[in-house]
Design brief:
By secondary structure, the chain is of the alpha/beta class. The chain has 13 helices and nine strands. An eight-stranded parallel β-barrel has the order 1-2-3-4-5-6-7-9, surrounded by eight helices. Helix 1 crosses helix 2, helix 1 runs parallel beside helix 13 and helix 7 packs parallel to helix 8. The radius of gyration is 19 Å and the shape is globular. The termini are close together.
Length: 338
């Protein structure tokens, strides 16, 4: 039984909706961040993706700064920076700068996947595979650059030294769980799209966790997709854009933007329940507050996580904002009953 209060946060891919520009998308990201700050959300994370016309968060650290500037209390960060794409020194300098401008508000979530296709990964960094294998060492380098006692090193990131930018390990497999546990770092599992190894990864992380100067006991975040409206029918309609996006991803069809919502047809409902689709979207919550609350309580009791990180990829910005508002209300109701 999960007895501790659950924190709740946003994962935003800055998805470009049909009929919108990149500029519109970034404005919508800012508007959503400002709204969820008032709804009690803890953090706002942006994801790094490349060579995807429908995603506007490719320059992740730039967008993080833009969101932090437009908000006051939210923690803002990366969910995540795909570290093998980058030099650890440059990431330390970027996030050290962000942490200096916005003290105690910047998070650095790190993942090892490319966030794109293999050809684009090679275009970003020709030695990507070597860097991916060196992921634990690359994290160690970043931690060293942020250390307050690194002044005598030959290579430094002075603007990062002693700056409070917490590191989170992101993962979609058990490999990342071993690493987060060994380093004594918080762990965020990408269960909003990778569902198969969630419970195994959580068990490994908790069993192998070694306390560190940063974290004395395990801290787990898990991703979900959520679409909440006044009625189940409205929520289903809102989710149709997401369902079509999942189908495109699984069939390899690149979309320029997220489609408009449509009525939930029998064909769409059947496709969404297909095992291949459910393997990717099992932890998707669609419906009214009461329906989602019941399902969410079960998920929280099963996972015993500390924090939910929620993504809502729908076409209508107002419906998206309302969904986050209603979900915040659901989690607050759940917390009050603990």
């Amino acid at each position: 039984m999960n007895n501790h209060p659950i924190a709740y946060s946003v994962l935003d891919l800055a998805v470009v909706t049909k009929g919108s520009s990149f500029n519109d998308t970034i404005k919508n990201t800012i508007a959503l961040a400002q709204k969820v700050e008032g709804f009690g959300y803890k953090r706002y994370w942006l994801a790094e993706h490349h060579n995807m016309p429908a995603i506007a968060s490719s320059a992740t650290s730039v967008l993080i700064g833009h969101v932090a500037q437009a908000t006051r209390t939210l923690k803002v960060g990366s969910g995540g920076i795909m570290l093998p794409n980058h030099s650890p020194l440059i990431i330390a300098e970027q996030f050290g700068t962000l942490g200096t401008i916005y003290p105690n508000r910047i998070d650095l979530g790190l993942g090892r996947a490319p966030g794109t296709d293999q050809e684009t990964a090679r275009a970003i960094r020709s030695d990507f595979m070597d860097a991916a294998h060196s992921f634990p060492d690359e994290i160690e380098k970043i931690q060293t650059y942020f250390a307050s006692n690194n002044q005598n090193a030959k290579v430094r990131a002075p603007i990062a030294e002693g700056v409070n930018v917490p590191i989170y390990i992101l993962g979609s497999s058990t490999e990342s769980a071993h690493l987060a546990a060994k380093k004594g770092l918080p762990y965020a599992f990408a269960s909003h799209f990778a569902t198969a190894q969630l419970f195994t990864a959580l068990e490994i992380y908790r069993k192998e966790f070694m306390p560190s100067a940063l974290l004395q006991k395990p801290y787990v975040m898990a991703g979900i997709n959520a679409f909440i409206a006044d009625t189940d029918q409205e929520a289903e309609r809102m989710a149709t854009s997401f369902i079509k996006m999942i189908i495109s991803l699984l069939t390899g069809a690149k979309r320029e933007s997220l489609d408009e919502a449509c009525e939930m047809t029998d064909d769409l409902r059947e496709t969404f329940s297909h095992p291949t689709v459910q393997q990717m979207a099992r932890y998707t919550f669609i419906g009214s507050k009461n329906k989602v609350k019941t399902e969410l309580i079960d998920f929280l009791n099963q996972t015993e996580i500390n924090e939910l990180i929620i993504t809502t990829n729908c076409h209508n910005q107002n419906a998206r904002i309302k969904s986050y508002q209603l979900l915040g209300e659901v989690i607050n109701e759940i917390n009050k009953n603990k």
